[in-house]
Amino acid sequence: MSNAAENMTAHQDTMPDAQVDTGADEASTANARPIPRISIQAFCEGQQTAEVLQVASEDRRLTKAHVSVHMGGPTAAVTHYQESPTPNLIIIESMQSGDAMLAQLDQLAEYCDPGTKVVVIGHTNDVLLYRELLKRGVSEYLVAPIAPMQFMEGLSNLYNDPDAAPVGHVYSFIGSKGGVGSSTICHNTSWILSELLKTDVVIADLDLAFGTTGLDFNQDPIQGIAEALSTPERLDEVLLDRLLTKCSDHLSIFAAPVMLDRDYEISPDSCDMVIDVVRQSVPYVAIDLPHTWSPWVKQVLLQSDEVVITAAPDLANLRNAKNILELLKQSRKNDATPHLILNMSAMAKRPEIPQADFEAALGIEASAVIDFDSELFGQASNNGQMIEELNAKAKASQTFRELAMLLAHRKEAKPEKTSGLAPILQKLKLTR
């Protein structure tokens, strides 16, 4: 059994013009990084713990790991490993305490292969017991009852370098219908995120045939994401730097080729490999997904840290958004609810579903509502500019700023308003 890993502290950038929103749930989610491709076998004594581990095994952070949950506790584990090799990680739940628990683990240690880690789930909150477990090489001790996120965070601490910067946060943007402006939302939000936080952001355009990232940022890259997806095993930081197109000091794009003389076959595994490399290099990765449905689109959505659904206020958008939401809620039980953006609202002479009715039907509130403004958005698109570059005072510019801060779990610091009489009042105070 290997030595215990120290607890990891989540790294958070501190910016002069933004304040960090430190919600407990968000911090816990950030600490639970993806677990590598390992085998995990758990032996539980209580049904409640077994159910928690089963829920965690279905989480996106453990999709690469092979997890099996058994009942019987330490006794069953010893019996099993007398005839079978031990996996990368053994999880043992013991109802015993003190010397009785230590005796169980000593017996198990006789059958543990070198390099196997052991996590113990106990029912006694005892510092002395914890120290004795560490002396015996136990990697982690968790006190029951535990929650799925607590369990995943504990595993994450074992298999990720505590001193390393966190892997980048991945946001997926998808439209509930074609032409609702999901790419525009993705590009403007990502650009503002990079400008406000002065931190690196990469936009990955996965609409290989019709992507607009290059157009929106007035770029015409020769290479891009298609080269990475075709040979994902070759992608490293050096090749990534060559394939990215730099649009500003902190924003780069992984542009789509937008060529129709090629057939684009994308596999879920290729997407995983490419996104993993990108997220190791920058704090924020925005995935611009096409409005289509395939195994790789579904997997990218399910594996993302957060999902942004853009919809127009009509019936088809409502139906499609509801289907996407239901899939995500069912498959991502330990993640935050997706963000809903109502775009192109208040279009003249067009019948619309009222915002309140749209939200009620979906069971969530819209994170942002953007009014229809063909002149502003059309001119920005034709110029290859972001909305704030064209008109920083536009209502949509402020909406994008608020959305960017919401996705980053930060709050934009507002300058304090001072009265014009402030200097005079200050002088009067000094003369007293």
Number of helices: 18
Fraction of helical residues: 40-55%
Count of structural domains: 2
Low-confidence blocks of residues: 2-28
The name of the CATH superfamily of the largest domain reads: P-loop containing nucleotide triphosphate hydrolases
CATH arch. level architecture of the largest domain: 3-Layer(aba) Sandwich
Fill in the CATH topology of the largest domain.
Answer: Rossmann fold
Average pLDDT: 87
**Terminal residue distance:** 73 Å
Tell me the overall shape. Answer: elongated
Describe the protein.
By secondary structure, this protein is α/β, with parallel strands linked by helices. The protein has two domains: 18-159, 3-Layer(aba) Sandwich (Rossmann fold); 169-412, 3-Layer(aba) Sandwich (Rossmann fold). Helices cover 41% and strands 17% of the residues. It has 18 helices and 15 strands. It has helices at residues 24-31, 47-57, 73-81, 98-109, 127-135, 148-159, 182-197, 213-216, 225-230, 237-243, 268-279, 295-303, 315-331, 355-362, 374-383, 387-390, 395-407, 422-431; strands at residues 18-20, 39-44, 66-71, 89-93, 117-122, 140-143, 169-175, 201-205, 245-246, 251-254, 284-288, 306-311, 339-345, 368-371, 410-412. The strands form three sheets. It has an eight-stranded mixed sheet with strand order 9-10-8-11-7-12-13-14, sandwiched between helices. Strands 3-2-4-5-6 form a five-stranded parallel sheet, sandwiched between helices. It has a two-stranded antiparallel ribbon with strand order 1-15. Helix 4 links the parallel strand 4 (89-93) and strand 5. Helix 11 packs parallel to helix 12 (295-303). The protein is elongated, with a radius of gyration of 25 Å. It starts with 17 loop residues before the first strand and ends with a helix. The relative contact order is 0.12. The model is unreliable at 2-28 (pLDDT under 50).
